[in-house]
Every structure is written in structure tokens, then in C-alpha cells.
Amino acid sequence: YPLCALAVSTSASINAEYMGPRSRGPWGSIYVDKEFANLLKDMFTPEKIKEFQVERADSWIELFDNWEIAKLKVRNLDNELPVLVPYDMEEFLGGQDAISEICKMYKATKVSYSEDGLILDGAALKRLYGPVVSGITDQIYELLKDDEVKDSQHLLLAR
């Protein structure tokens, strides 16, 4: 059976004696991380986020550790996802009330703030994951056009 291996950071096709062309594209979780960082820059300005990264690098790393934990909980892009914000970052950005106000003013996607951290709604998650999911589905469509694979009755997708 052909195997389309879609790891978090790679995509490749494998058949018993056939190795299809490997594609290296923007479908890994690092691209979701970049979109999360871009969301923060959109909300709090690139300058403010850069200042935070420089002045409080440990808290920036802690935020992304928390983001990594949150990503593991994503099962449906329509659900809300809380991302715990380190106290240091909360303080740097002016406290819970200031962050809540920024979230209310942010119109691109619905993001709110509570004691659970930043709450990303389905639209925000789709913004973060959309390009990655599109890249994966495009890769599968291309794979299914290949002569070695197109007549297959089964396709195993491995994570």
C-alpha cells in the first residue's frame, strides 16, 4: 500500500519499491508557530513584541512552551484554545485589563483574554493553521495524481 507520511514537519510519499518526490514545503508546525508570533505582533505591535523578546527572553520562551502545550490540544479548528501567558509578559503588556482591551480592539480574528491566558477562537486558529492545512491537502492531491499511486484503493496518512 502507498504511504503518505505527513509528519509535523515533512511530507513524503512511499511505496514498497517506489519513493515519490519528497516535497519540502511550509506545512510543518514551525509555520504555525510563525503565524502565532505574527498574530502577537499584529495585536501588540512588532516593536513591542521585539522589545519583549529582547528584554525578557526567558518569558518569550515560556510563552512558546505554553503555545506548544496548547497546540497539542487542537482537535478541531472551530473550538477555542487557551494559551497560558507568562506573568512576566502580562506585566510587560500592562496587565490583564490592558491585554483584554487590546483583544477587544483587535478585529482580524476573535481573541480574548482571561486568567486562562489568550483565548483563540476558531477564526484565529484557522488563520494560524490554514496555510499549513492547505499545503498538506495540496500535497495529497498532487500525490494522488501520480501513476504509482492514483489507482490505489487505500491511502494511509501517518502523523
Total count of helical runs of at least 4 residues: 6
Helical fraction equals: 40-55%
For the report, how would you describe the main beta sheet?
3 strands, mixed
Question: How many β-strand runs?
Answer: 6
Helix/strand order: EEHHHEHHEEHE
Task: Give the overall form.
Answer: elongated
Task: Provide the structure class.
Answer: alpha+beta
Give the overall pLDDT as a whole number: 80
Topology:
Layout lengths: L2 E4 L4 E4 L14 H16 L1 H10 L1 H15 L9 E3 L3 H6 L3 H10 L5 E4 L2 E4 L1 H24 L10 E3 L1
Parallel strand pairs: 1-6
Antiparallel strand pairs: 1-2, 3-5, 4-5
Overall description:
By secondary structure, the chain is α+β, with helices and mostly antiparallel strands. Helices cover 51% and strands 14% of the residues. The chain has helices spanning 29-44, 46-55, 57-71, 87-92, 96-105, 122-145; strands at 3-6, 11-14, 81-83, 111-114, 117-120, 156-158. The strands form 2 sheets. It has a 3-stranded mixed beta sheet, with helices on one face. A 3-stranded antiparallel beta sheet has the order 3-5-4. A hairpin with a 2-residue loop joins strand 4 (111-114) and strand 5 (117-120). Helix 1 packs across helix 2 (46-55) and helix 2 (46-55) crosses helix 3 (57-71). The longest helix is centred in the C-terminal third of the chain and has 24 residues, at 122-145. The chain is elongated, with a radius of gyration of 19 Å. The protein starts with a strand and ends with a strand.
